[in-house]
Amino acid sequence: MSSTVSNSNSSNHPAESLSAPFGATDVERLVRPQMVELFDSNEKLVLAGGQELGPIRVSYETYGELSPTRDNVMFICHALTGDAHAAGRYDINDRKPGWWDEFIGPGRGIDTDRYFVICANVLGGCQGTTGPSSINPETNEPYGLDFPFITVEDIVRVHRRLIDYLGISKLACVIGGSLGGMQVLEWMAQDPENIDNAIILASAPRLSAQGIAFNAVGRRAIYADPAFQNGEYYQLEELTDGGPRGNPKIWNKPGTGPRFGLALARMIAHITYLSESSIEKKFGRRLQDSDQFAFDLLRETEFQIESYLHYQGKRFVERFDANSYLYLTKAMDYFDLAARHGNLGAALGKTTARILVASYTTDWLFPTSQSRELVSALISQGRHATFCELESPFGHDAFLIEIAQLTELVRAFLQSS
Question: Count H helices, E strands: the chain?
């Protein structure tokens, strides 16, 4: 395997050069993105669909200090629209920290006084890891829809190669929610003997027909946007400063491409992340800017819930690539651990990990019934499985919102290991 990495010194084990305290104050929580290139032209990744891909750039971040025996590594698998920036800030003046910042740090749910934490952007993403917006080395143009079909299996294989590159042979814990939880399950199936603990949050071994349906409508919204142009909407530009996330040649500028279709896809998906009770409590039928109906069909944000969804769509377009959305939602649709292995017992029966599965009472995208099915399969194989259904009004997004109760659960589980 040939690999190159930026922003780190030479070391037999690159993870050692990234090891550093991760504190509680903003100044102590400044981080920097890392880049590594894996799967060179001599050893490309053979994807589940049969195509080959390489080289593959992977963007990742680390938090905390690596133990001398390198046995305290926790890997975070992010959800569909997440990225490697799970905690901290790049600059003290950044408006927002990483997406799980309240959960990662000294004494927090993911305790950086105990664990060396890694989070990497997924294959097919748009935040530094190779995806549809990356340059195809064979054409010197963005891949677009020429990017090969990817699966959750492929995503995990890339992250496992990253761990190998960093000189880590065993993981103390793998944790993830939603699509991230699917990755955790796939990781246990691929590498059953080298994970001590696995935590699956608001996820399942397969997406329901209803979930597939919502993904299909979201993709259709992107396809129907005239600016989609069969996926060839990128604007090439040479970036002297290295570009976002270190990409030197290309970036999909905010507001370009199928922005209306992508915003609509996000609005549709965001509805599935909420619950009826949370929408009613936060918005109800309240109007946005008036106490009377406008009687105007062209007014798009008359109700507060309409304004909220439009805001979510607008913000999403500023940071995410439409083609990545197509590829990653399809990877979720295809994921079916039981079907690929014959049954869940065969898929996960060899894992030696202690497993925590958590669901949420108002999550109708990944309902508790699917978590119970998973836990039953694990127990039938004699695996060490713990299950908890958490009360929450926030629906599927609860694992990103209700950090206090998640911290209590995860801390207790990990302290008993």
Answer: 13, 15
